[in-house]
Structures are given as C-alpha cells and as structure tokens.
Amino acid sequence: xxxxxxxxxxxxxxxxxxxxxxxxxxxxxxxxxxxxxxxxxxxxxxxxxxxxxxxxxxxxxxxxxxxxxxxxxxxxxxxxxxxxxxxxxxxxxxxxxxxxxxxxxxxxxxxxxxxxxxxxxxxxxxxxxxxxxxxxxxxxxxxxxxxxxxxxxxxxxxxxxxxxxxxxxxxxxxxxxxxxxxxxxxxxxxxxxxxxxxxxxxxxxxxxxxxxxxxxxxxxxxxxxxxxxxxxxxxxxxxxxxxxxxxxxxxxxxxxxxxxxxxxxxxxxxxxxxxxxxxxxxxxxxxxxxxxxxxxxxxxxxxxxxxxxxxxxxxxxxxxxxxxxxxxxxxxxxxxxxxxxxxxxxxxxxxxxxxxxxxxxxxxxxxxxxxxxxxxxxx
Length: 379
Hints:
Layout: E1 2-4, E2 7-10, E3 13-15, E4 18-23, E5 26-32, E6 39-40, E7 45-48, E8 50-55, E9 57-58, E10 61-62, H1 68-79, E11 83-89, H2 95-106, E12 115-121, H3 143-150, E13 156-161, H4 168-177, E14 181-184, H5 191-200, E15 204-205, E16 216-218, E17 221-223, H6 226-232, E18 237-240, H7 249-259, E19 264-266, E20 281-284, E21 287-292, E22 295-298, E23 304-307, H8 311-320, H9 326-333, H10 335-341, E24 357-360, E25 366-371, E26 374-378
Parallel strand pairs: 1-6, 2-7, 8-11, 11-12, 12-13, 13-14, 14-15, 15-18, 18-19
Antiparallel strand pairs: 1-4, 2-3, 4-5, 7-24, 9-10, 16-17, 20-21, 21-22, 22-23, 24-25, 25-26
Helix pairs in contact: 5-6, 8-9
C-alpha cells in the first residue's frame, strides 16, 4: 500500500510531495512522490497513530471489567479518535480486582494489538488527593500487595503512586528493577518528598495540575508541592489531560512554556462515559457518574471523574486553544509516549516503524486509522 498526496506530520514540521510505502505492517519507505495508483489522501494530514498512556474506558465499558469484550470496545471507540496504541488503566480497588485486570490483559483473550500493557493508578495514593478514586481502598505499600502486582511486571508499564507514603521509596526501587515507569500522582507530597521520589527514580507525573499538591504556606514560608517540582525539573515528563475542562488554557500554556514540546504526554484519562450522550450515567469503580457538558463527573458533581475525550480532541485543543504547532501537539500524542515506554518502532513516520497511522482532515477530524497497515476506522 502506498499513501500519497498528504501533508506528512514530521518531528520538525509539515512536508508535502512525499509518499509512504507500507509492506507487511511496517513503513517500508518514505520517498518523493512517484507512483501511480497510490492511495490519494487528497491533501489530508498523515500522522503517526496516537498513543494513550492513561485510559480507563469508553461507551459504558471499563478496564476494571477485566474482559476481552470490554477491552475491545474501549480500543474500537478510541480508534475513532486516532488511537492506535494504549495502556488500559486501573483504578484504586482491592488488589485482587487489579490483579484480575492484569491476568486478563496477559491472557490470550486480552491480546489485542492496540493494548501495550497496563497503567496501574493506585491504590498507593494519598487520601487527601483521591479525586474520584475510592478512598476506602487506598493503602500504603505492603509486601503482599506489591508481590501480587509485581507477579505481572511484564504487563505493568506505569504505576501512579504518591511519593510521600511510607515504604514507597522501597517500592520505587523495585519498580525500577522491573523497568516499570514510576509516575507521581494523586499525591499531597511536599517539595522534599517529591524530590525524594525523583531521586529514587520517579520520572513522570500523572494528569498534571489535577489531584496533586501545589505551592502552600509551611509556617511563615512558602513551599512548593509536586506540581512545582515537576514544572521545575527537566527530567520529569508531565501527563496532560488537554480536554479543555480539566486544565484551563492559561495553565496549559504555562506547562508548555515550562516543559517544552518534548516534556508533555497528552492523555485522555477517558472513563466509561467517553462516547456516551450528554446526561448519560455510568459507573467508575462502583461510583455513580454522569456525562455533563463534555466531561465526566461524579453524579453529585463534586469532582471530575475522568474525561469523555479521545486523543484527537486533545490535539485539537492544544492547537486551537493553546497555540501549539500541529507537529508539536502530534508529538505529544505519539513520539513522546512511545519514547517514554521504550517502543522504538511506534510514534513516528520513518522507515522501519510500525505502520500505525492516522489520517486527519484540515479541521483535525480523524478520517482513517490504521494499525500495522490495516484500516481499523474509516469515517
């Protein structure tokens, strides 16, 4: 298959006059346009497929169902937003329920091409910053819980935890040994506690600005929190839910100025409400939630309950509301998460890379999505 007559979204900008050759699920070549009979993309954008590192659900289905049917429904819906790879994300729950998800992803029935692994969000988080997570299941790290989870270290790619908890630094050590990315989140950490987590190997933070400590008075002095530590530390990569609801444009601009295009990974944090109509109710870890004005809320509207967005919605917000160049916004949804996970054949348009592709209209709507060169969505 040969794709031509597109604006290629490359790391340093757009380029016209090229064609992309796909063979055996890989990008075989990118060259000057020369072929007759190529697929004519009619001037659309051609970009790498999007990679979502933090996604709970869609269309009323939830990762915590631990079923291939739920996993497939989530992948299929988010393919309409250009997502070709994702990490199914758990919530704070009994360890046995999280293990059930890990088992299901590892099993042959959970072997769906788009699923790269699991992001374990909780239960080792702060009750003070629980957000929509269920406080009764939050716990400090203990040997039984850690051993139960690390039996699936091959499946876990990221773990979100609060660096201020007792015994958490020893946990970070173990996670690093298993090459699991440590992300600070749902955390009330002080500047000192955040730095301790960093020194042990914490190199990212979860949904920046949301459910994390920020600058406050400590006695008569002003002290940074996890947010300011992450903004100031060049080696910390920041997740961003750029749905236009979780974080205001001004705060997103501040993050962009602080971290640059290479320090941000766009994530949806989509829950089961994604894809449901306005006013529809759903559950998140047993909590009643509702879709309202394009975002997911607890039913009593006391807190956000993830997003209702797809990755293309985030890219569009970054371009239209934050003023980020399209190629940089796309990198935040492709190259940056691929690099974080160490998947060197994803997130880029170059020879040898996986043929995970998304075709975008001039209005930044997804027209087609391909995984390994196979079309999985057509508008």
